[in-house]
Structure formats: structure tokens, C-alpha cells
Amino acid sequence: VDSEMTVGSEKGDPTERQLHVKLEDKELWGKFKEFTNEMIVTKNGRRMFPVFRVTISGLDPNAMYTVLLDFTQVDSHRWKYVNGDWVAGGKAEPAAPNCVYIHPDSPNFGAHWMKETVTFSKVKLTNKLNGGGQIMLNSLHKYEPRVHIVKVNNSQKKRITSFSFPETQFIAVTAYQNEEITALKIKHNPFAKAFLDAKERPDQKEFS
Amino acid sequence: VDSEMTVGSEKGDPTERQLHVKLEDKELWGKFKEFTNEMIVTKNGRRMFPVFRVTISGLDPNAMYTVLLDFTQVDSHRWKYVNGDWVAGGKAEPAAPNCVYIHPDSPNFGAHWMKETVTFSKVKLTNKLNGGGQIMLNSLHKYEPRVHIVKVNNSQKKRITSFSFPETQFIAVTAYQNEEITALKIKHNPFAKAFLDAKERPDQKEFS
DNA sequence: GACCTTCTCACCTACGTGTTAAGC
DNA sequence: TCGCTTAACACGTAGGTGAGAAGG
């Protein structure tokens, strides 16, 4: 999958000259990045929050594409949270067999990928290799999500275009380290609403 | 979509000479058919139970296909449930704009469709036309599910092969008529477990 | 009145959260 | 002890059931 990689404009195929992938929710990602984002990894896999979403333009509407998501290790350090700060530690672990997540709509027509935001809400991050389509990461290492767009033609030649997004970098953890990150997750992720209520209810009581 | 239709073996394309679609859960469908199966239709759409599932074989693993589900009106009568029996009544209503449900994995490779059971668990039946991918049926009319396999090639020529399954015939209803059907739905559909418990708990109490 | 449809409801399935305590 | 990981848990989201009353 990593064989051939080009970013941005290309020659030779007028139908894809302006191929572009734009990250959604940049403002939200920015809030997390400010405190160094963390993503939980579990044995059975944990979803990402914020959800990785992109809009794609410049594909050939009638051609067939598969859209992939993977994670590049940003540096070769193991990270550590000490006294409220993330600091780079020793050498990185050998890179995990970092598999690729295939967007469930794949394969599909260019028109399909362009008609609405492409959402990777179901990708799951894990620290164990366990079969089912999850992405294995090393805990306490830093990663950057990357999107690949693969044109599917019946011959073997595949052209892969990749886009990565520094705003979405994060450190994989088995438990949150920075409570600012925890607070942001609870504030914005609907599935964590139970903990949002727990903090808000006492205040509301005073007025009722 | 109804343009060209062939069932069973075909000449001319050796890669699909043995194309075959087999219905799953035949035994379960049989229990419902015995009492004349009913499927609820609602304004917002109701899932089918049993779920329509098939295994497909004989496709070209490397070719691309879309798999569709629709419903043919079995006869031209309106049906009525009188004294515990379904009886054919007056003329049928004008056939609803019976749309086609596209299996969400579509389009995909032959290999994908053949590697495991193809499940139509999310198709929803409705009696109103309301936009969102639901299938509109006339209440109190009899239908038979039908699968279409469409080979996707970049030219305009599409070959459609269709398979229908008499075991899965049903009458669309807005409320169940035959209590035997209700009992079977409750017994086998996990989402109706609340009503299964209601019938079993009294017996269990006697022993506790 | 008889028949059919619609709506609300309690009760499920299924599973995504951070918390917490225990494990190593 | 300390750092990190694991598993059970309460509490949400999201939505699929037939029942039963109300509507037409």
C-alpha cells in the first residue's frame, strides 16, 4: 500500500488534476492538538474521537476508488507524561504491523466519494493484534492519520494518492493522561454524555 | 432495472455459467409461510423479519457487481383476514412505485459477495413514499422478494440476473392479523424479547 | 359498527463512554 | 513504589419490538 505516493496535483490524467482531500472539524481537532491529543487503545479496539472526516474532490465520477486510512508513526520516540507535560523518552518500539483500515463504502464510484463527507467513525484502535479490521498501534507513541485514495482498475496498476493531516496527530494511550483532554472528550463526544451530566447537574440543582 | 431478466444457467459468459443464489433460513421462512407470513409496513419503514439472507456463488471474483432487492406483487388481489383466514378480495390497488433496495455493500467484487452470506437486515418496508431508501408496498397485498445481480462495467450494457423465492412471500400489513404470526415473530426476533419474557416469566415464578 | 391506520409507550438489543479498582 | 494495562461497571446513544389506545 505504501508503494507509490503522491500528494497534490498530478500530470497525465486530466480527470484527477485537481484531486483534493480536505479535513473536516479542523476547529475541534485544533482544541485537542493544543493540549497534545490522546487516543485510547484497547484490546478489542476503541473508536477515535474526534471522528476523522474528510471531503474529497477532483475524482473521476465514473471511475472506481477505494479509500483507506492508516497511521504513520510521527517520530521514533516513546512518549511519557511527566508533571503535566508530554516528554520524548527512549527509542520507539518496533513499529507494529500497522494495518490499513478500508473505508466500509469501498470500493465505490468517484461520484459517491464526492457527494458527501467521508466519515471514518467506525475505525477502531487497538494495542493487540486480533483479527477484525482494527488498527494496531503502540501505546505511548505518536501517530498521524493518513488517507489513501486508490483507483481500482481491473489491471494490476494502481495509483495511490495520499494525504496526511498534522492537525490530527495524537499519542496512543491505554488511559488518558492529561485531564484537559479528558474534559474535551467528555464535552464533545455524545457517547460520553453521562460524565458531562455528572458535572453539570450540581449547578443546575441550585436553580431548581 | 427490470429490463433484462434471466434465471439460472446462461451461455456466453463462462465465468458466470453456474451463477446461483441460495436462500438462507429456509426452515424459519417455512414456519411463517405455513400460517401465511405478514410483514409490518409503517410510515418511517419497518425491517423485515425473518431477515432476507442469501449465499451467492458462481460470480467472477474480479468483476464488479451491485446486488439489489425488490418485491414483486404476487397476484392482483387485495387480501383480507376474515375469521382466521386470508381471503382474496377485490382488485389490487395500482402498484406502488416499488423502488429497489441497493445492498449497502454495493458495488463490490464478486469475491466479496461470495465470501459470506449476503444479508438484507436493514431494508425497510413502508406504506408512504418518504425519500430515504425505503421500499414502498401496498398494505394488504401479497409480495415476493427478488434478488437482482447487476454486473457493473463502465459501458452502458448491464446484464441483470434475477432470483425470486416463493418461501419468502408475505402480505404487507399495518398491524398483525394472525396471532400465530405474532407468536413466531416474538419467538424468533431478538428485538421482540420483551414480549417473550412477558409470556415466560409467570411459569418461571412458580419454580422460584 | 367494522376495518384499517397511526401514534405513543415500555422494554428490549447493541454498543460507545470515562471511571474505578485491581493486576502486573 | 511507580508506571502502565486490564476488566467490570454505570450510564449514555441509537434504534428495533409488539401492545394498546386513539384516530379516520
Description:
- The structure is a homodimer of 208-residue chains.
- With 208 residues, chain A is of the alpha+beta class.
- In chain A, 19% of the residues lie in helices and 33% in strands.
- Chain A has 4 helices and 15 strands.
- In chain A, the strands form 4 sheets. In chain A, strands 2, 5, 8, 9, 13, 14 and 15 form a 7-stranded mixed β-sheet that branches. A 3-stranded antiparallel β-sheet of chain A has the order 1-4-10, with no helix packed on it. A 3-stranded mixed β-sheet of chain A has the order 3-11-12, with no helix packed on it.
- In chain A, strand 6 and strand 7 form a beta hairpin.
- The longest helix of chain A is centred in the last third of the chain and has 14 residues.
- Chain A is globular.
- At the A-B interface, strand 9 of A face strand 9 of B.
- Chain A binds a DNA duplex (24 and 24 nucleotides) through strand 3, helix 3 and helix 4.
